[in-house]
Amino acid sequence: MKKINPFYFTIIMIAISIVGYFFITSFKKGGKNVKHHVNSFNYVIGTQTVGSKYKFTDKSMLVETALEIQKMGSNLLKFSMHPRYSSENYGLPHNDQITSLTKLATLEPSMKEVLDMDFKFYHIWTYGFSQYTPEPEGKKDDTAQIKFIDGFSEKYEKALYDELYEFTSYLLKTYNGTGKIFYLGNWEGDWHLRSDYDRTKPANPKTLEGMIKWAKIRQKAIDDAKKAVTHNDIEVYHYIEVNLVKKALDEPNAQVVANSIVNVVNPDYVSYSSYDATNPYKTEEKLKKNLQKALDYLESQLSPKTGLPEGKRVWIGEYGSPSISNSDESQNLRSIWTIKAALEWGTPFILYWEMYNNEINTNGEQVGYWLINDKGKKQPIWYTHNSFYKESKAFVEKYVKANGKSPSFNEFKKKALQFKSLNP
């Protein structure tokens, strides 16, 4: 056999390397890699499902609404996990064997199904079974799941830590390598601090002290589980949700969660149920000014923290304008005002309340916090979300093909503010 000239052999090998490089690069910029980037990108806007008053299929309400959220184009699901799974929240079958969050995740089929679904981001109102006292049948009593009212006893402290540590460990092990990100937090914390819903009263010092302990334990349980459990491409974070921010801005000496708990605990993130900064205002300019002022205030209550992704740590956990006091067009327009103001500020999430309405007034009328109404009609704000996702995914796909990576948050934000869906 004739020997190949070393010079020609070298040239051939270089050519093969170059072809291989371009083939691999081309593959990474297309096909599965592009799809992965598109599916896992944070598109910021989203919605949630808690306590809906209607459904249209034979699936459980939780699964039905999760599928509707997915069909709308979202890769984010916000829902609740706590002992009310079988009562007001989802009407799922009661199971006496479910005595913890981990058992709820494993033994309740609908819970397991949505956790296994192809969502990237999960926001979960998380309340331990170890903290729960059954409520009188047909009655709702928030103190049944909040055991720090007038102080937090040691037996509840340990039980809370153990249950949330176990649940976080379960998530890290079960969804290791999936790319999922879980944010575990609470519903409107200022109504936990003032469980009688009276914003005019001063905070009970013992309840305030108890809630600080409660939030610190939740943060520590999550942090400790993350240190103890080997994991990769899976994240779990802790957040505190606040809602009486305007009270803090108007009354500097008033004690609310933002200025009395967030600044002490320094959670991973803060969620803002933002009705007091959005719904009172009748123009886009005023809504933007007041919402961004509130977001600035919340950000000022946080201290620097290592181990978190770059970017803002305050998001919009709830916003919305009910149809009972707004036309469909007004509901959509006011939502766009909120999206644009929060997106411009840089919130990592802006979550609309909600997929199906959860409130009925004393006259039996749907209040209308919805994307799809009780007749199954998709509202204009549903189409805004759907169009936004289509524009967003087209932008991300084009960007990845051109650059081999996803756009930064700021690059996406700048482009998204120009989308037709936000500028009707």
Characterise the protein shown here.
The chain is α/β, with parallel strands linked by helices and 424 residues long. The protein has a single domain (55-422), classed as Glycosidases (TIM Barrel), CATH 3.20.20.80. The protein has 15 helices and eight strands. An eight-stranded parallel sheet has the order 1-8-7-6-5-4-3-2. Helix 6 links the parallel strand 3 (121-126) and strand 4 (181-185). Helix 12 crosses helix 13. The model is unreliable at 19-24 and 26-30 (pLDDT under 50).
Stated plainly, the CATH topology is called TIM Barrel
Strand content bin: 5-15%
**What's the total count of β strands?**
8
Helix content estimate? 40-55%
Count of separate DSSP helical elements: 15
Q: Architecture, CATH level 2?
A: Alpha-Beta Barrel
Shape label: globular
Transmembrane segments: 6-24
Protein name: Glycoside hydrolase family 5 domain-containing protein
Keywords: Membrane, Transmembrane, Transmembrane helix
InterPro entries: GH
Helix/strand layout:
Blueprint: H1 6-29, H2 31-40, E1 45-47, H3 61-72, E2 76-81, H4 101-107, H5 109-116, E3 121-126, H6 154-174, E4 181-185, H7 190-193, H8 205-228, E5 235-242, H9 245-250, H10 257-265, E6 269-273, H11 275-278, H12 284-300, E7 314-319, H13 328-345, E8 350-352, H14 380-403, H15 409-416
Helix pairs in contact: 2-14, 4-5, 6-8, 8-10, 12-13, 13-14
